[in-house]
Amino acid sequence: MKISVLQVLALFFLDIGVLHCYGWARHTFVVQETPYTKLCSTKTILTVNGQIPGPTLHVTKGDTIVVEVRNKANYNVTIHWHGVKQPRNPWSDGPEYITQCPIQPGQKFRQKIEFSSEEGTLWWHAHSDWTRATVYGAIVIHPKKGTSYPFPKPHAKVPIILGEWWKKGITELYDEFLASGGDPNVSDAYTINGQPGDLYPCSKSETFKFTVDHGKTYLLRIINSALQDILFFGIAKHKLTVVGTDASYTKPLKTDYIAISPGQTFDVLLEANQPLADYYMAAKVYSSALGVEYDNTTTTAVLHYNGYDDGRNSSSTPFLPDLPSFNDTNASANFTGSLRSLADDGHPVHVPLNISTPLMFTASVNTFPCANGESCAGPNGSRLAASLNNISFQLPSTDILSAYYYQINGVYGDKFPNVPPLKFNFTADVLPQYLLTPKKGTEVKVLKYNSTVEIVLQGTNLAAGTDHPMHIHGYSFYVVGWGFGNFDKDKDPLGYNLVDPPLQNTIAIPKNGWATIRFKANNPGVWFMHCHLERHLSWGMDTTFIVKNGDHSDAKMLPPPPDMPSCS
Ligand SMILES: *[C@@H]1O[C@H](CO)[C@@H](O)[C@H](O)[C@H]1NC(C)=O
Ligand SMILES: *[C@@H]1O[C@H](CO)[C@@H](O)[C@H](O)[C@H]1NC(C)=O
Ligand SMILES: *[C@@H]1O[C@H](CO)[C@@H](O)[C@H](O)[C@H]1NC(C)=O
Ligand SMILES: *[C@@H]1O[C@H](CO)[C@@H](O)[C@H](O)[C@H]1NC(C)=O
Ligand SMILES: *[C@@H]1O[C@H](CO)[C@@H](O)[C@H](O)[C@H]1NC(C)=O
Ligand SMILES: *[C@@H]1O[C@H](CO)[C@@H](O)[C@H](O)[C@H]1NC(C)=O
Ligand SMILES: *[C@@H]1O[C@H](CO)[C@@H](O)[C@H](O)[C@H]1NC(C)=O
Ligand SMILES: *[C@@H]1O[C@H](CO)[C@@H](O)[C@H](O)[C@H]1NC(C)=O
Ligand SMILES: *[C@@H]1O[C@H](CO)[C@@H](O)[C@H](O)[C@H]1NC(C)=O
Ligand SMILES: *[C@@H]1O[C@H](CO)[C@@H](O)[C@H](O)[C@H]1NC(C)=O
Ligand SMILES: *[C@@H]1O[C@H](CO)[C@@H](O)[C@H](O)[C@H]1NC(C)=O
Ligand SMILES: *[C@@H]1O[C@H](CO)[C@@H](O)[C@H](O)[C@H]1NC(C)=O
Ligand SMILES: [Cu+2]
């Protein structure tokens, strides 16, 4: 420890003083166990303030807020502010054992959340084991006073949060998943704003309803908080116009459906221009891994037109949207590949053009041999795993951020490879067995301040080729290109979009394909990178960036707050 008690006290009072001066808005999140009945089965779930989805945080671009997280439950928990860059302040970011140890039962942690360039929709969620299944909510970032949306002001706005529901407890699911070595049980339902909708047995009254006036335009803030699945979403008979993603505006994109990865958000305009009636909005799975089970159910909510008397028309059921088939990779990639940054005078793009740090990461599902005396439910009796550049990431037992800040050895290594250790036909139909077993490690990638980083994310067909929604904390990145098959370093860069690529914080590497992202490493700190499918994250499809301080005083990481949760 290189910090004295006096310094801690000084920081504490300084912090209180600052809070007082600026009057940052303060919120309290009480994490608690709440009895909950859904699909005719009752269980106790973790919630924030007893709600699911949890409270929506409303802020204005550039605000700083403080959320005091009080853990009144019997489980460890942490909260992550997904897509909020938190300039120089990884201390509040939330992923357990990366930037903090868990907030243990009975403890609290006051997290300062600083918004910078984000505008639109983000979300917050738990980042400890699989507790995010029920601990999540929306973050709405309004334009600054005197500025407005780059589209006509919508009549009303509504968060549409897609979720995933198991009748049994999440802890039971998670423990069983860890013990079995196989895939986790698929979910029993998907949800829209916490409600499955009326297509499930025993769910008639559990439907979210959104009422509109004919002729008006609405802004839907769509978030995918599902644990394990990319989803297709659409509204019967209505076009959707995407105008933003991950709190960054896009060129308007008119579409019948969206494909949304866990972690992503889309701001979508909906024109209520159809005959007065009830219409379903619906979501169902996009699942590309061959032979992997999936939840084939459809969650619905009702779009209801004012003036439509459903009482007199009770026999008619709403129309369902026509969504792509569960394995339609083209439909998913086509939507994702059609996104473009707004890129106008008010919303310039800053794509790094001169790359100082070219990287290539393979994302693979793997297997480990089953341990002696165990029986494992993975392929051929193995234990399933996952990796980036053939390293299956192991969470340490104290957090990487304090190990870095206080220079504690033995918590992590800095040998994450810049390129895949072996070159092979990543997307071949058949791959040799010896490639399948990764190494275990806690290796980070260290980046110089202000380096310009490009990462070619390459999916592989080891064990099961599938999409991987990769998320980086502390940054948004430009998605400059993507394709199917193996990345071709000579041909593919010629097709990069360096003019108006979308700026995102989560991007799905297409099944047996690649995606290239670029960002400038100007946010010093410790930042997690991981697949946002929770089973892949748990299997080790993750790594961590340490972005070094720059020379200037405003290019350095801030000191820790006085109430960081303890690791013991
Ligand atoms: C998972 O599925 C198996 C087989 O259907 C069942 O026995 C088990 O209870 C399920 N576990 C959970 C947590 O739902
Ligand atoms: C979903 O899968 C179940 C079990 O495999 C099957 O019985 C059911 O018909 C399927 N439903 C749909 C809508 O495909
Ligand atoms: C009931 O629905 C039908 C078909 O959508 C429509 O033609 C009819 O006018 C409706 N009737 C009432 C009373 O709303
Ligand atoms: C999707 O699955 C169906 C079987 O349900 C199969 O016939 C079809 O070939 C699959 N399509 C793709 C693109 O994999
Ligand atoms: C997907 O698109 C590719 C070309 O981009 C085409 O060859 C293939 O047939 C399409 N697959 C389906 C299922 O539409
Ligand atoms: C998506 O599909 C449309 C129609 O088939 C096509 O014109 C467009 O080029 C495709 N876009 C992408 C990004 O694949
Ligand atoms: C690219 O960056 C390098 C250092 O990283 C610098 O020497 C070079 O001048 C830059 N080139 C351009 C065209 O900016
Ligand atoms: C890689 O595998 C794919 C799919 O099996 C095949 O089409 C392609 O020819 C292979 N490429 C090379 C260079 O062997
Ligand atoms: C990963 O590393 C292990 C251990 O060194 C090796 O056996 C395996 O072939 C490697 N696989 C890949 C895809 O690099
Ligand atoms: C399972 O074993 C068979 C036969 O040895 C092999 O062809 C297949 O690739 C194995 N699958 C996995 C995922 O290890
Ligand atoms: C980082 O980049 C910014 C903008 O390109 C520049 O203004 C700043 O001087 C750079 N800082 C360092 C330490 O290189
Ligand atoms: C909760 O967190 C503490 C501190 O890291 C750890 O020692 C403990 O094992 C955790 N409990 C569980 C159930 O994971
Ligand atoms: Cu993944």
Automatic annotation (TrEMBL):
GO terms for molecular function: copper ion binding; hydroquinone:oxygen oxidoreductase activity. Its cofactor is Cu cation. It is found in: Secreted, Extracellular space, Apoplast. The keyword Magnesium does not apply. It catalyses: 4 hydroquinone + O2 = 4 benzosemiquinone + 2 H2O. InterPro entries: Cu-oxidase-like_N (IPR011707), Cu-oxidase_2nd (IPR001117), Cu-oxidase_C (IPR011706), Cu-oxidase_fam (IPR045087), Cu_oxidase_CS (IPR033138), Cu_oxidase_Cu_BS (IPR002355), Cupredoxin (IPR008972), CuRO_1_LCC (IPR034288). One of its GO terms (biological process) is lignin catabolic process. Its EC number is 1.10.3.2. Binds 4 Cu cations per monomer. It is an enzyme of class 1 (oxidoreductase). GO terms for cellular component: apoplast. Residues 1-21 form the signal peptide. Residues 31-145, 158-307, 420-550 form the Plastocyanin-like domain. It comes from the Eukaryota. CDD domains: CuRO_1_LCC_plant (cd13849), CuRO_2_LCC_plant (cd13875), CuRO_3_LCC_plant (cd13897). It holds the Pfam family Cu-oxidase_3. Lignin degradation and detoxification of lignin-derived products. Belongs to the multicopper oxidase family. This is Laccase. It comes from Carpinus fangiana.
